[in-house]
Amino acid sequence: MSRSFFLRVLGLLIIVAFAATGCASFPPAPVSAASADYDYLIGPGDTLNIVVWRNPELSMAVPVRPDGKISAPLVEDLSAIGKSATTVARDIEVALTKYIRDPVVTVVVTNFVGPYSEQIRVVGEAAKPQVLPYRQKMTLLDVMIAVGGITDFANGNRATILRTTDGNKQYSVRISDLIKRGDYSANVEMRPGDVLIIPQSWF
């Protein structure tokens, strides 16, 4: 093996090791992140149970279509995406005033998906990378249970959270310490729209 070839291989290994450890250092994710005044917002795929008081023929469960709208008796193509259940109920009441005097509507969400902007995305070396609906006080441990943990090739303690609500700021998290060593101090709260990135370990 020539000296030049050896140096090239050594240089390549240094570059790979440097990439694996990461050239950027991210601050640890805040333990508390959930907003106390969080309201669930409706998204495509949710199911809404609409109850119109004293009008059972107008009461039914309807899906939120991929375009974010719903259709119900006497109510066509009403936008529901990004709204709370209470707001949608008031919108339906306004639509029904053309046909019913002083309608009283209640909307209950019975299947939770949420808008795309608030879903939690898990990418990289998760056992089952996927998109999850956000729940108030949802933690990193909740996310890892939902995705079945990490693969044997994951570098869990180099994982990061990309927080879209903080202008795409990244925070470091210690997944391996949390789920393999039971270090609960590594558990942190998630926020709507977070992206959990789990890199591969090179060694």
Salient structural properties:
203 residues; alpha+beta; 5-stranded mixed beta sheet; 3-stranded antiparallel beta sheet; 4 helices
Structural features, described:
- The protein is an alpha+beta fold and 203 residues long.
- The protein has four helices and ten strands.
- The chain has helices spanning 3-21, 85-96, 140-147, 175-179; strands spanning 47-52, 60-63, 69-72, 75-79, 105-111, 120-124, 131-132, 160-163, 169-172, 195-198.
- A hairpin with a 6-residue loop joins strand 6 and strand 7.
- The chain starts with a helix and ends in a 5-residue tail after the last strand.
- The relative contact order is 0.18.
- Mean pLDDT is 90; it is low at 9-23.
How would you concisely characterize the structure shown here?
The chain is an alpha+beta fold and about 200 residues long. It has helices at about 5-20, 85-95, 140-145, 175-180; strands spanning about 45-50, 60-65, 70, 75-80, 105-110, 120-125, 130, 160-165, 170, 195-200.
